[in-house]
Amino acid sequence: MSKKITILSLDGGGIRGIIPCIILKYIEEQLQQKDNPNLKLGDYFDLIAGSSTGGILASILLYPNGNKKAKFSIQKAFELYSEKGEDIFSVGFWGGLVNPFGLFSEKISEEELEKHLLDFFGNLELKDFAKPSLITAYDIENRKAQLFNSWDAQLPTNNFLVRDICRATSAAPTYFSPAKIKSVYGQYFSLIDGGLFANNPALCAYAEARKIPFAEVLKSHLKPNRPSVNDMMIVSVGTGSETKPYSYKNLENAGKIKWISPVIDILMSSNAETVDYQLSQMFQTLGNRNQKNYYRLNPSLKNASPEMDNVKQENLDALIQAGLSYVNENKETLNQIVQKLIKNKI
User: Which residues carry out catalysis (predicted)?
Assistant: First the structure.
């Protein structure tokens, strides 16, 4: 019998990427306890997608060891956010006074982000990922989506340094400046955060998976080539649901400056909700068993800040607690995912 194509999709959200780290840590620990203590989370998924902070997480999970297996556990990603997050997202006192809300230039210097990406990924290339990927960015010069897939990257024109991809997918307007990167072939691209069009990249991941000959790529006849939705299991993980209301009175006569923050916030959260709706409807058309192969895991932020760059210790703790609370309340669902990942592993 053929096995499902397993897809992991990771939303954008800046420092809120701590939340999916906590949820995925539980899933990985259960996989190691119930199946194989030597395998990592990335070994159980056939394609991993990510936007913005989710793109960085995906890249960590797809980092290969010498045997083309996943090298790092999700704990490594959690350590990057909890230990380096303050360096990456810090604005500084004077910067906050001179450049409030990123109105006059980017809110955060990209130097620390680029330094940490270089230290972590070095000269790793996209084509060398352990599994197929889908990492999003947007090309501001050619006005089109730029989707990075390690399967496509076997061609030099589609191959890039992973650190450059991570810089591009996380270049959120008003936070970081656009990324100017070049392919291994030498072509330059001017890119910004993929979260602007796919903060929840799960539907992009589905579309990408439809064209991949997985049996050939994964070297297993148990996996289908160019799978349909019937052949997939999708786990989509958010960075916390947004519930902050905007009153009509406050925005009735708002100008461009006053609309900047609400527009970005609403754009990203509504995008994620729409993708969830579309995939839910697609899976509902399947039989009783297969329609249960789509999971959207997106906790309440609880007491955590919705801001993408709030690295105060109390907020980091609140993000961790939001993730732990979700795990505690949804163990049955998470354990179902674990069992299905084991069943569909090759």
Answer: 52, 193
- Note the Cα 90 to chain centre separation in Å: 21
Residue 284, token pair as written in the block: 């509902």
Q: What's the chain's length in residues?
A: 346
Which segment of 41-50, 76-85, 141-150, 203-212 scores lowest on mean pLDDT?
A: 76-85
Helix/strand/coil percentages in the chain, nearest 5: 50, 15, 35
Helix (H, G, I), strand (E, B) or coil at 258: helix
Whose tokens are 């993408």? That residue is 308
CA distances from 300 to 20, 191, 242, 262, 332 (A): 12, 31, 8, 19, 18
The span from the CA of 179 to the CA of 169, in Å, is: 9
Task: Please give the structure tokens belonging to residue 254.
Answer: 């708002």
Whole-model pTM: value is 0.90
> What tens digit of pLDDT does each residue of 108-145 get?
456 777 888 898 999 999 999 999 999 999 999 999 99
CB 14 within 8 A of CB 309: yes
Return d(Cα 307, Cα 318) in angstroms, integer. 12
pLDDT digits (tens, 9 = 90+) for 175-207: 778 999 999 999 999 999 988 899 999 999 999
Active site residues: 52, 193
Q: What Rg, from alpha-carbon coordinates, does the chain have?
A: 19
> Given phi > 0 = left and psi -120 to 50 = alpha, else beta, which region is 337?
alpha
Q: Which helix (H) or strand (E) is 49 found in, with range?
A: strand 47-51
Distance CA 163, CA 56 (A): 9
